[in-house]
Specification:
With about 500 residues, the protein is mainly alpha-helical. About 65% of the residues lie in helices and about 5% in strands. The chain folds into two domains: about 5-395, Na+/H+ antiporter like fold (Up-down Bundle); about 415-490, Alpha-Beta Plaits (2-Layer Sandwich), CATH 3.30.70.
Length: about 500
């Protein structure tokens, strides 16, 4: 069959559908979906059932970079600023010093295992130094568990902000290998420039983006996602062209926008979440096509050794050293160390040496690919068990879905919040009209079991009801306090 645009579109559609359907298998086996996407790509490749020959590393790198831009932005936009703000210092230390320590330990060990030079060993260490916490939380979500206290927001912050550091180190060590006369000391001023420009432009663009989205008043709602796509790409390209870290800039852009109110915020978060999934599928299918399984087999032994060093030595040591100044319990530190899963970023960064044409490039790529798979299989499948053994697991709160939405906008001092009526609340059995509801608060909907009730003054309240309340923060707190008043023992009897 000749290769026409129709044939290409057919393959794209089939592979995308297979990836989406296969994600349901992760429910049963608690394996991150990206590993299934990667497997489908390998099966479609030249050594698989599909027989598609693909070895264009430049295209693969370009697809990976574009995908990471939107994945990292979506991660920042979907982060709750209030939860990560108290953890900024430990999170940033983990995403910078922690990444450097991981790269150094793995790099030194790789020198002995593969007979690499120091720069080549550190290059391998830098490539595998970043984590993919999305894979962690997908496993926890599938097992209906979460993590206690500050663990979840800290891991979100670390994983979202450590990719730029891994990119910087990879490019820096690659430059030392390929450019004669380069030294490790040159990386320090480059780091300040790279990260400084990324932070400044990311923050400046976030202010511009929020102001523009709020003021432009587009006639068609469908143009708002197009507008944010353009702004994200503009942020990355401007930062990169000015010698800054574009990935850091788009993460800061998303994170700073997450704490602001702007037009279509809720729908834009959902759009970019879907965009991130599309990018993940595209990226992992491409990387799967790029892999030749026959070339992975010879590096299984050495790759497993690197994976063990990374999982049991480099990651734990870097976590314990970086968190020394902070008040984290021993089980919490162990859990943070254990959930350092590797994901898409290491495999994408492994294409950089291939394009640079260094002698050890193919070996590095194959080792990195094996380490990522081993990390998911060893750590990913055991996270629920380890969290229970350490006593840091918590029930996963179910997300309630309501048949209406409220878009928070500038100038509206109110939000839509759900409040639970305790079963032994003094409000149970009373009518809405008899309840002390603040004058400016409005109970717009009641969720009772699987049903939704539009309330009026004569609606009788039952224990376990969930009120959907439109009010400002003080009124919400007052109503919550009223609902928390419990009946006396005599009344309950």
């Amino acid at each position: 069959m000749p290769i026409t645009i129709e044939v290409i579109l057919l393959w794209i559609a089939v592979l995308a559908l297979l990836s989406i359907v296969s994600s349901k298998l992760s429910d049963r086996f608690a394996v991150p979906a990206f590993l299934l996407f990667l497997t489908i790509g390998m099966l479609a490749g030249s050594e698989g059932l599909g027989g598609i020959y693909f070895d264009n590393y430049r295209i693969a790198k370009s697809i990976g970079v574009v995908a990471l831009i939107f994945i990292i932005f979506s991660g920042g936009l979907d982060t709750t600023w209030k939860t990560v703000k108290p953890l900024l210092l430990p999170g940033l230390i983990l995403s910078t010093a922690g990444v450097v320590m991981t790269a150094l330990i793995v790099g030194v060990c790789a020198m002995g295992i593969f007979k690499f030079s120091l720069a080549e060993g550190l290059l391998l260490g830098a490539i595998v130094s970043s984590t993919d916490v999305a894979a962690v939380f997908s496993v926890l979500r599938l097992r209906k568990i979460s993590l206690k206290g500050h663990l979840k927001p800290l891991l979100e912050l670390e994983s979202g902000s450590n990719d730029p550091m891994a990119v910087f180190l990879t490019l820096g060590f690659l430059g030392i290998i390929t450019r004669s006369g380069s030294s490790f000391l040159q990386l320090l001023p480059l780091f300040v420039l790279d990260m400084g420009i990324g932070l400044l432009l990311g923050y400046a663009m976030s202010r511009l983006c929020v102001e523009l989205v709020n003021r432009i008043k587009l006639e068609y709602e469908g143009l708002y996602p197009v507008l944010t796509i353009a702004l994200v790409l503009l942020t990355y390209s401007l930062t990169t062209l000015t010698r800054g870290n574009g990935f850091l800039a788009v993460y800061v852009l998303g994170l700073m926008m997450s704490r602001e109110e702007f037009v279509q915020k809720r729908s834009l978060i959902r759009f970019h979440e879907g965009m991130a999934w599309l990018m993940q599928i595209t990226m992992f299918l491409t990387l799967g096509l790029l892999v030749f399984p026959s070339q992975i087999v010879p590096v299984v032994g050495s790759g497993l050794l690197i994976a063990v060093i990374l999982i049991f030595l480099a990651r734990p040591l870097s976590i314990f050293v970086c968190l020394l100044p902070f008040n984290f319990r021993f089980p919490e530190k162990v859990m943070i160390a254990w959930v350092g899963l590797r994901g898409a970023v290491p495999v994408i960064l492994a294409t950089f040496p291939l394009l640079a044409g260094i002698p050890q490039a193919h070996l590095i790529f194959n080792v990195v690919f094996f380490v990522v798979v081993a990390s998911v299989l060893i750590q990913g499948t055991s996270i629920p068990m380890v969290s229970r053994l350490l006593g840091v697991n918590a029930p996963l709160g179910a997300r309630r879905r309501y048949p209406l939405e409220f878009e928070q906008m500038k100038g509206i001092d109110a939000s839509l919040t759900d409040l639970i009526v305790p079963f032994d609340s003094d409000a149970a059995g009373k009518k809405i009209a008899d309840l002390k509801i603040p004058q400016k608060a409005l109970v717009v909907l009641i969720s009772r079991g699987e049903k939704f009730i539009v309330p009026n003054g004569s609606t009788v309240i039952e224990g376990g009801d969930v009120f959907l309340v439109l009010a400002d923060e003080p009124d919400i707190k007052e109503l919550q306090k009223n609902l928390a008043v419990l009946r006396s023992d005599a009344e309950q009897k």
